[in-house]
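Worked Example 4.2. Consider the chain below.
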Amino acid sequence: MDKALQTMIANMPEKTGKSLEEWKVILAKQAFAKHGEAVKHLKTVYGLTHGFANTIVSLSKQDDDEKVDLVAAQYKGKESLLPIYNTLIAYLVSLGDDVTITPKKTSVSIIRKRQFVLIKPATKTRIDLGFKIKDKATTDRLEPSGPFGTMCTHRVRLESSDAIDAELKGWIAEAYQQSV
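Applying the procedure from the previous section yields the following C-alpha cells:
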C-alpha cells in the first residue's frame, strides 16, 4: 500500500466521520451492481468527496473478492452444500445491521460484537453449524460443540436446506441476542 493511500485511510475518520471498516460495513449492506453506483451512493447519501468514495468502494471490492475466494475454496468438491450455506447467510444477515460475515480458511465466523455462529463444511454431505449459547441444554439435534471446542458451546449438523427450520432459526437468534 502506498503512502498516499495509507494517509487517506488514516485521515478517513476525521474527514468523513467514519473509519474505513465502518464504511465497509455500510457498503456490505447494499447490493450495488457497479462500482460507479456505490461511489455515487456514498457521494449523494453521505456527502463524501469522489476520492474518499472511490477509495472506500475499491478497498471494499478487494475485500469482497478475497471473501468469495475463501468461501469458494471451502466448498470446492462440496458444491452441493452451497444452497445450505447461502440459506444460512441470508437468514443471518436478516438478523440486524450489526452482523459481520468473516470467511476464514476452513470456516466462516458470524460476528456481532463477538462470534455467535460458526459455519464449517465438515464433510462432502454436511455442514456443521456451531453456536455460542450460554446455559442452553443439549438435545439430540442441538449437540455439544464437538470439534469446535471452546469456540462454540453447541453444534447442529446440517445436510439440507430443509434443516434450516424455525427451531434452528430460534437458536441462531438466541445466539445473536446473547452476543452483545
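The chain is about 50% helix and 15% strand. The longest helix spans residues 50-74. Compare this with Example 4.1 before moving on.
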